[in-house]
C-alpha cells in the first residue's frame, strides 16, 4: 500500500470491491486504498500548509498510521492512552497523548526511560492532575514533556449552556497561564504544547437533513469567532511562560477553519482517512467512504426480510439511530426499527432484499472511524479488483488499550 502517490481513481468501484473479496468468509473489514489515498491528500489540502498530527484512535491499525506519516504534510501522532503512546513511540519519535492519564505503571515506565521521555508528550489539564503525575513519576529521571489542554467548547448564558465536549477545566486565558506557571515551576516537567479540540465544530456536520443544519451552522459560526479570539489570548498567556513547540487544534471536520487561526501551528485528524458515516454531512468537504465491514446472510425469515450474522457494531456517543451501522451494498437495504443492529443477528428490509440468498455478502459502514478496528483482528486492503494486503488491527496485535 502506498498513500503518497497521486493520480488514479478516487475510489474503487463496487464491482471491483465485490470481485476482490467474494471468496472471503464474513465477518471481515475492508479498506478501499484508492479512497484512503484520496482522503489523505484532501486532508493535507484542507490544512493549507499546517502539519497534520495523525489521530491514532480513529485508525487503530499501525500499518495505516505508518503509511499516513509518509505523506508530506502529516507529522506526529495524537495517541489516546499512554500505554498506546509508549507502544507507538518504540517506532515513532513524536507522540502526544491526547487525554490525561493516571496509568501508574505506564507513567513509571515513561519516567525511567530517557528515549521514551523524549518522544512522548503527556496531556495535563489541572493542578490536581499535575500533582498526581508528579507524585507517580518522582523527582529523579529525564524531564517529561507536558502539553496543556484548553477547553474550547462554546459556553453561553454565563456558562449555563455548554456546547461541545466536556474536556478540560481550563477555559480562560488566565487559567491557562496559571497552569502553565505551575508546570514551569516543577523541575521534572517541560511545557512544550497547548491543545484544544473544538468538537462542536469538528464533530458535528453542518449539512444534516432537516432544519437542524441551520441551527448547527449558526452555532458553529459563533463558536469559531469566539474561539479564535480566546485561543489566541490563551496561547499568548502560555507563551509568556514557556516557548511552546506546538499549538494543536481542530479535527477532521474543522481543518480549514482551525488551520486559519495564526496561533495554531498544527491540526489533528484521523477519521477523515476512513471517512465513516459521521462525515457524510459537511458542506466544507466530501470525503470518499474508505472503510467497510461485511456480513453474511444466514436467514430468510420471510420474503421481506434477510438476516445477517452479527451487526451490532454500534458507535460510541449518545445512544440513537445515528450511532447504528448503515447497510450500503446492495443498495436500498435498511435496518428494522424494532431490532436495529443485533449482537448476533441483524434483520434487513428493502426493495432488493428479495435478491439476497443464504451466504450472500452485505456491506456496512460504521458511524465512527477507529472503533471499527476493535471488532476485527485484521483489515483487508483492496485497490481496484485485487487484495493488496491483509494487515492486523491493534486488536490483531493483541492490544486493547480501551
Would you mind describing this structure in some detail?
It is globular, with a radius of gyration of 22 Å. It has helices at 14-21, 33-47, 62-68, 82-89, 104-112, 114-119, 127-137, 173-184, 199-202, 212-239, 255-259, 271-274, and strands spanning 28-32, 52-55, 74-79, 95-97, 120-124, 144-149, 154-156, 161-163, 189-196, 246-249, 266-269, 291-302, 305-309, 326-329, 333-335, 345-350, 361-365, 378-383, 386-392. Helix 7 (127-137) links the parallel strand 5 (120-124) and strand 6 (144-149). Helix 8 (173-184) crosses helix 10. It is of the alpha/beta class and 402 residues long.
Question: What distinguishing features does this structure have?
Answer:
19 strands; 402 residues; alpha/beta; 9-stranded mixed beta sheet; 25% strand; 8-stranded parallel beta barrel
Task: Describe, in short, the structure shown.
This protein is an alpha/beta fold.
Amino acid at each position: 500500500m502506498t498513500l503518497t502517490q497521486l493520480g488514479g481513481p478516487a475510489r474503487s468501484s463496487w464491482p471491483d470491491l465485490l470481485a476482490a473479496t467474494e471468496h472471503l468468509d464474513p465477518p471481515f473489514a475492508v479498506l478501499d486504498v484508492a479512497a484512503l489515498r484520496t482522503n489523505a491528500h484532501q486532508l493535507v489540502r484542507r490544512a493549507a500548509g499546517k502539519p497534520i498530527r495523525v489521530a491514532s484512535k480513529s485508525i487503530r491499525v499501525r500499518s495505516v498510521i505508518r503509511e499516513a506519516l509518509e505523506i508530506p504534510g502529516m507529522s506526529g501522532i495524537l495517541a489516546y492512552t499512554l500505554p498506546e503512546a509508549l507502544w507507538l513511540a518504540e517506532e515513532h519519535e513524536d507522540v502526544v497523548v491526547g487525554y490525561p492519564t493516571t496509568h501508574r505503571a505506564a507513567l513509571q515506565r515513561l519516567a525511567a526511560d530517557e528515549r521514551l521521555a523524549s518522544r512522548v508528550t503527556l496531556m495535563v489539564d489541572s493542578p490536581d492532575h499535575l500533582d498526581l503525575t508528579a507524585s507517580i513519576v518522582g523527582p529523579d529521571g529525564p524531564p517529561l514533556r507536558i502539553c496543556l489542554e484548553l477547553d474550547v467548547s462554546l459556553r453561553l448564558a454565563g456558562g449555563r449552556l455548554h456546547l461541545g465536549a466536556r474536556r478540560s477545566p481550563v477555559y480562560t486565558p488566565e487559567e491557562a497561564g496559571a497552569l502553565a506557571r505551575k508546570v514551569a515551576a516543577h523541575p521534572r516537567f517541560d511545557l512544550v504544547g497547548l491543545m484544544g479540540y473544538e468538537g462542536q465544530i469538528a464533530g458535528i456536520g453542518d449539512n444534516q437533513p432537516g432544519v437542524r443544519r441551520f441551527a448547527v451552522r449558526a452555532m458553529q459560526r459563533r463558536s469559531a469567532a469566539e474561539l479564535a479570539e480566546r485561543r489566541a489570548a490563551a496561547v499568548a498567556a502560555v507563551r509568556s511562560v514557556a516557548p511552546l513547540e506546538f499549538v494543536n487544534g481542530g479535527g477532521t471536520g474543522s481543518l480549514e477553519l482551525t488551520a486559519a487561526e495564526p496561533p495554531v501551528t498544527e491540526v489533528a485528524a484521523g477519521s477523515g482517512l476512513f471517512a465513516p458515516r459521521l462525515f457524510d454531512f459537511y458542506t466544507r468537504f466530501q470525503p470518499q467512504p474508505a472503510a467497510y465491514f461485511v456480513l453474511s446472510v444466514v436467514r430468510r425469515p420471510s420474503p421481506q426480510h434477510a438476516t445477517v450474522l452479527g451487526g451490532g457494531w454500534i458507535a460510541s456517543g449518545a445512544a440513537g439511530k445515528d450511532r447504528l451501522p448503515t447497510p450500503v451494498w446492495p443498495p436500498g437495504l435498511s435496518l428494522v426499527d424494532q431490532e436495529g443492529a443485533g449482537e448476533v443477528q441483524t434483520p434487513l428490509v428493502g426493495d432488493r432484499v428479495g435478491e439476497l440468498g443464504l451466504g450472500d455478502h452485505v456491506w456496512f459502514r460504521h458511524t465512527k472511524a477507529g472503533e471499527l478496528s476493535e471488532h476485527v483482528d485484521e483489515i483487508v486492503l483492496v485497490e481496484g479488483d485485487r487484495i493488496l494486503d491483509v494487515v492486523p488491527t491493534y486488536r490483531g496485535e493483541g492490544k486493547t488499550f480501551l
